[in-house]
Design goal:
- The complex is a heterodimer of chains A (271) and B (419).
- In chain A, strands 6-7-8-3-9-10 form a six-stranded mixed β-sheet, sandwiched between helices.
- Chain A has a single domain, classed as P-loop containing nucleotide triphosphate hydrolases (Rossmann fold), CATH 3.40.50.
- Chain A contains eleven helices and ten strands.
- Chain A is 37% helix and 25% strand.
- By secondary structure, chain B is mainly alpha-helical.
- Chain B folds into two domains: 131 residues, no CATH class; 220 residues, Orthogonal Bundle (MetI-like fold), CATH 1.10.3720.
- Helices cover 67% and strands 5% of the residues of chain B.
- A three-stranded antiparallel β-sheet of chain B has the order 2-1-3.
- The two termini of chain B are 52 Å apart.
- The chains are: A alpha/beta (271), B mainly alpha (419).
- The interface between A and B is medium-sized, with 29 and 20 residues.
Chain lengths: 271, 419
């Protein structure tokens, strides 16, 4: 089958998948949107400082689960989440948890680049400013440079930090959103199909960036593009009809899936 | 292509051309109506900015003004300037001796001239006992004749004899037109030659300020709550329907509400801009709420998610991102509501802002009137002189509206450019 993909997956993970510390542990997570049972009993372990990819056909619940990890589903009026999701051993749905603090620890990058209609500089400093991470102007400047360098955007925009972020190209906007996210120094970054609105070249840049970012962050990425999952991730989870069908090392999923549905999806029989 | 298809295509293009022509026709009609309105109003009104005056030598007779020799202000204000004025006019035309003639002479200068003399003496009591050449305000009927608004004979407001005296005066260069500053610095009066619009302008300014200060924050906060916080259930549905209904309630009903609630129940002063502004605020609220909700809904969800995604609280999301993005739309709704409030007359009649007020209001609690009501009252007067004043009032109202809207649009632009 997909040997080329499998080779790339291997190349992206030279050191092999050793047992790593677990960052996020989910047990029996169910999500209901009103009467609709969107996510059914999902249990998954997400290792620290690695890339975990969620794949699956449209409407399979992968984005729903992703949005549970930083409680973005709270903003949907009739969504109900049960089960437990632990971040570093602490339940994030505990009533004592402050959702604003949680989202500072678990950042999110969205499908469509959504920079604020403000300057590039303001986009990056917004998070640090509301969380009080910077004392002075110089601190903010330092955060901006560090974050934009981290997102691989510094050299392209350093001379026009005061220009609106919405004036950048799509790929640059998405990297600006990544810079905005890493500016608050989260521990986990959730990416919801971050490349689906981008051209192949911008996609390649983002993928390289993800490879860089996993040195410092735990990354969970939802993607429709199986090659992308194979290229960037160490672990892959396959969702189907609200169920987590299979989760394993990426290499294994793409070369030797255990479940017939996974096999069918990655070979393109449906999806 | 088959001939059938070509024919169909031709028909389609013809239909499109007709469709466009209908649009152009509608535009032309609207523009023509507007032009007609402007031409009528300006044509009738521009003459009100000038006033005819007659130069006559006045003897400030001490016997008439200060018979006891006292020159304190109160006495001077109440002195008999009519005699002084009549003596001056009849001295100019000594050949007129008959009663009817004297009455007609008196008709050359209106009571405005009396007020003029009084103001002169009060300002400078040293004038008493002196002779001065004074430009006196002509009676409004004379004013109309000189300006060509009326002609001799029709309605016989000005007699042949008066016309003869005017010709005599004009020959000596003693008839002229001056810029009517009083119109821009005075308040209402019974005499068309003395009326001013400033009272209405100040009243309108106070009223609209009160209206804006009440309606804008209330409307925006209500819209933010309904759009961002309120659960979507039957209760909020009912509230929404009722807000839409309120926007359609006839304005006179709001006037009745203001009368019974603000004046009768809360005991607020009658005829005051405070009450007028409150009533207009109630009237503007639904419009502002509806516009603000539409503007808030139009803010893309991706911006909200982006803000929440970096850990903004809901209030920060609204305050830092949603409201600023919605502000141009909210301002547009507010401009429409305020322009509507500016032209509103009916509810203000109910709360007594239709009173005859000759002082310029100094604060939102003093009795005052507003521009549209002032225009309404002038239009009600029978004197020919009020026709041009009515039109001039409309011109001032339109200018006021233009200035208000232009500044709002400028504000909106400034807001949009911040991004």
């Amino acid at each position: 089958m997909n040997t080329m993909v499998a080779n790339k997956a291997k190349a992206a993970q030279p050191q092999g998948a050793g047992p790593a510390a677990l960052k996020v542990v989910a047990r029996d997570v169910n999500v209901h949107y009103g009467q609709k049972h969107a996510l059914k009993g999902v249990s998954i372990d997400i290792p620290d400082r690695s890339v975990t990819a969620f794949i699956g056909p449209s409407g399979c619940g992968k984005s729903t689960f992703l949005r549970c990890i930083n409680r973005m589903n709270d903003t949907i009026a009739n969504a109900r989440v049960d089960g437990s999701i632990k971040l570093d051993g602490a339940d994030i749905y505990d009533p004592a948890v402050d959702v604003v603090q949680l989202r500072a620890r678990v950042g999110m990058v969205f499908q469509k680049p959504n920079p604020f209609p403000k300057s590039i500089y303001e986009n990056v400093v917004y998070g640090p400013r509301i969380h009080g991470l910077a004392e002075s102007r110089a601190d903010l400047d330092a955060i901006v440079e560090k974050s934009l360098r981290g997102a691989g955007l510094w050299d392209e925009v350093k001379d026009r930090l005061r220009e609106p972020g919405t004036g950048l190209s799509g790929g640059q906007q998405q990297r600006l959103c990544i810079a905005r996210t890493i500016a608050v120094e989260p521990e986990v970054i959730l990416m919801d199909e971050p490349c689906s609105a981008l051209d192949p070249i911008a996609t390649a840049v983002i993928e390289e960036l993800i490879e860089e970012l996993r040195k410092d962050f735990t990354i969970v990425i939802v993607t429709h593009n199986m090659q992308q999952a194979a290229r960037v991730s160490q672990r892959t989870a396959f969702f189907h009809l609200g169920l987590l069908v299979e989760v394993d090392d990426t290499e294994k999923i793409f070369t030797n899936p255990q479940d017939a549905r996974t096999q069918g999806y990655i070979t393109g029989r449906y999806g | 292509m088959t001939p059938e298809a070509i024919r169909r295509l031709k028909r389609r293009y013809a239909a499109e051309r007709r469709f466009k022509a209908y649009g152009i026709a509608a535009m032309t009609f609207a523009a023509a109506a507007l032009l007609l309105l402007l031409v009528t109003v300006v044509g009738n009104g521009y003459t009100a900015f000038w006033q005819t005056q007659l130069r006559i030598e006045v003897f400030f007779d001490p016997d008439a003004i200060a018979p006891a020799g006292t020159t304190d202000r109160r006495r001077l204000m109440g002195a008999d300037y009519r005699t002084v004025l009549l003596d001056a006019v009849s001295a100019r035309f000594p050949e007129v001796r008959d009663r009817d003639g004297l009455r007609q002479l008196e008709g050359l200068v209106g009571s405005g001239a009396e007020v003029q003399l009084r103001d002169m003496v009060v300002a400078d009591p040293g004038l008493i006992g002196q002779r001065r050449q004074v430009w006196l305000l002509a009676h409004s009927d004379i004013d109309m004749l000189i300006k060509g608004q009326t002609r001799l004979g029709d309605g016989a407001r000005v007699t042949e004899r008066q016309a003869g005296w005017l010709t005599a005066l004009a020959r000596g260069g003693d008839v002229d037109q001056f810029f009517n500053t009083r119109f821009f610095t005075g308040a209402d009066s019974r005499d068309p030659e003395l009326v001013g619009i400033l009272g209405g302008v100040v009243g309108t300014t106070f009223t609209l300020l009160i209206c804006l200060l009440l309606a804008f924050p209330l409307g925006v906060m209500a819209a933010v709550y309904l759009e961002e916080y309120a659960p979507k259930n039957r209760l909020t549905d009912i509230i929404e329907v009722n807000i839409n209904n309120l926007a359609a309630v006839p304005s006179i009903v709001f006037g009745l509400l203001g009368l019974s609630v603000f004046i009768n129940f809360f005991g607020m002063p009658r005829s005051a801009p405070l009450v007028g502004g409150s009533v207009l605020a109630l009237m503007s609220l639904p419009t502002i709420i509806i516009a603000a909700r539409a503007a808030l809904r139009a803010v893309p969800p991706s911006i909200r998610e982006g803000a929440l995604g970096v850990g903004a609280s809901k209030m920060q999301m609204i305050g830092h991102h949603v409201l600023p993005l919605a502000m141009p739309g909210i301002l547009t709704g507010t401009i429409i509501a305020m322009a509507h409030a500016l032209g509103e007359t009916a509810p203000l009649l109910m709360i007594g802002m239709v009173a005859f007020i000759t002082d310029i209001p100094t604060d939102p609690l003093s009795a005052s009137t507003v521009l549209p009501v002032q225009i309404f009252m002038w239009a009600d007067h029978p004197e020919r002189g009020f026709v041009e004043k009515t039109s001039a009032g409309i011109i001032v109202l339109l200018v006021f509206m233009l200035v208000m809207n232009a500044s709002a649009v400028w504000l909106r632009r400034k807001f949009e450019r911040r991004w």
